[in-house]
Design brief:
By secondary structure, the protein is mainly β. It has one domain. About 0% of the residues lie in helices and about 60% in strands. The chain contains no helices and eight strands. A five-stranded antiparallel beta sheet has the order 3-2-1-6-5, with no helix packed on it. A three-stranded mixed beta sheet has the order 4-8-7, with no helix packed on it. A hairpin with a 2-residue loop joins strand 7 and strand 8. It is globular.
């Protein structure tokens, strides 16, 4: 049985856009909403964005400007 490869992702609120920003596989994706189906944990930074949520995902799909993290 082969295991699906996962990649690190993180997301945070983008105040300038007024939306959420997802960073996944060297891409920056802006979405209105996030539906996350994988475990996440918080990470505090010394510079902005101060708080990001991060985890491991096999894919990020955009449907109707909603990001589905699987």
């Amino acid at each position: 049985m082969s295991k699906t490869k996962t990649y690190r992702f993180f997301y945070h609120y983008n105040k300038k856009e007024g939306k959420l920003t997802i960073h996944y596989r060297k891409k920056c994706i802006i979405a209105d909403d996030i539906i996350c189906k994988v475990p996440t944990n918080s990470k505090w930074n010394k510079t902005q964005p101060y708080l990001v949520m991060q985890g491991l995902a096999s894919s990020v799909e955009i449907i109707d400007n909603k990001a589905f993290i699987i």
